[in-house]
Amino acid sequence: xxxxxxxxxxxxxxxxxxxxxxLFAIVSVSHCVRPPIYPRLIGxxxxxxxxxxxxxxxxxxxxxxxxxxxxxxxxxxRAVAEGVIPRIVVQSMTRELSPVLxxxxxxxxxxxxxxxxxxxxxxxxxxxxxxTLSTNPHKYLIAPRLIAGLTMLPLLVLVGDTIGxxxxxxxxxxxxxxxxxxxxxxxxxxVAFLDVWSGVVKAACFGFIVALLxxxxxxxxxxxxxxxxxxxxxxxxxxxxxxLVSNYLITEMFFGK
Amino acid sequence: MSARETLPPKIRIRxxxxxxxxxxxxxxxxxxxxxxxSVLVIGxxxxxxxxxxxxxxxxxxxxxxxxxxxxxxxxxxxAAEREIIxxxxxMLFQGGALxxxxxxxxxVAFGLIQGExxxxxxxxxxxxAKLAAVGMSANVGELWxxxxxxxxKKRVGLARxxxxxxxxxxxxxxxxxxxxxxxxxxxxxxxKCVRELGATALSITHDMASARKIADRIAMLYKGExxxxxxxxxxxxxxxxxxxxxxxxxxxxxxxxxVRAR
Lengths: 257, 262
Hints:
Number of strands of chain A: 0
Radius of gyration of chain B: 18 Å
Number of helices of chain B: 11
Low-confidence stretches of chain B: none
Oligomer: heterodimer
Mean pLDDT of chain B: 84
Helix content of chain A: over 70%
C-alpha cells in the first residue's frame, strides 16, 4: 500500500499541473485575440525573440550543417557523396535539425529570460500592481510573448534552414572539394515543400511551447530569488522536453505512415 | 463624523475566511470602511494584514464571506468586471512594485495610459504633476526605477497610486524599511494626498507612529479577526490587553508570537 501511495500522489500532481498549464494556456491565448492589443509590447517581444536570436540560431545551424556534411562524407563512397550529401544536408536541416536546434537554443535564451523576468515581477509584486492598475497580466505580459514566440520561431527556422545548407556547402566545397554548381543543383532539387513546411509547423509549435512555459513558470514562481531560479530552470527543462516530445508527434503526423 | 456614519460604508467586509492549506489566516473577519474615512489595520507580522488587502483587491480569492464595495459584492467577479472595480482603487505596495522596464513617469502614468487609454503626452503631463505633488522634480520622471532610493520609490509608488484619482487608496506598510525622518515625510504625503483627493484610505502597518498620524480609526487584527476597533484618539485607552501589548511593543502579554510556539 505504502509503495503505491507516492506513485498515486505523483500521478495526481502531474495531472494537476497539466490541468493548470492547460487552463493558463487557454486564458492567455484568449487574450491574444481579444482587444485591447498592445502593439508596442508585441513589437518589443518580436525584436527580442526574432532579431536578437539570430546570432544564436545562425551559429547553431551553421555548424550543424557543416558537421552534417563532414560526417555523411565519412560514411559514404566518394562516387555517390557529391549527389547524396546535398540531399542529406537539406533534408535533415529543414525537417529536423533547424527546427529542433533552434527551438532548444531559443528555449535556453528566451524561455529562461521570460521566466526570470516574469518571476521577478511576481515576487516583487509587480504583477499584483498590474492587476490593481486595471491591466490584465495575461494580456499585458503573456499574450505579446506568445504571439512573438509563435510567429518569430518559424522565421528563425527558415533563416536557420538557409544557413544550415550554407554550412554544408562550405564544408563540401572548400574542404571536400565538391563542385559548387553541382552541390547547389542537388540542393535545389531536394528542397521539398513538405519538408520545409513541416519544419515551419514545428517551429511555430516550439515557439509557443517556449513562450508558454517561460511565462507559466515565471508567473507561478514564489519565494524570492531562489523561487525565480527554480522557475527559470523549470522553464528551460520542461520546454526542452516538450519540444522533443512534440517534435516526435509532429514528425509522426507528417511523415509517419 | 455623524454624517459619515449614516452613509453606507465604502467597503464592507463580513465573515471573511481565507486559509492556505491547513493554515487559517482570516477567520471570520468583519470590517467597515466609511466613505472618506482613513482606516488602519494593525497586527503582528504574519497576522494576515496583507492577505486582507489582497482579498479586497481580488488578488486572492477568499473561501467564504462577503466583501462589498459601494454596496456591490466583489468576490469572485470575472476579470473584466474586476478591472472596472479596480479603477476605483489605488494601491501603494510595500516595496513600491514599480515596473522596472518602464521609466518613472511611465510608471506613474501607467493607470492613465493602460487603464483609461489616455494619450501618452497628456498622461505624461499628469504624471509630472503627480510627481510634483509628492515632492519630486520633472527630471526624476526620466529615470529608471532601479536608479531610485527606497524613499524615492515609495514616493513614486504613491504618485502612481494617486495618478488615476482613485476613490479608495490602499497602503501596504507605507513606512517599512525607511528611516524615521523619511517615514514621517511619507506619512505627511499620505495624509496630504488622501485629503486632497477626498479619498477613502485603508492601510496596514505595524508602525505605530505612522498609524497615529494617518488613521482616523484603527482596527487590530489578531488570529484572523478584528479584536478591537476604535478612533485613533482612543487607542491608548482601549482597555484591551492585546492592543496595549501591541502598541507598546512588549514581548510579554497575551499575544504569544507564533515563532516561539513552534
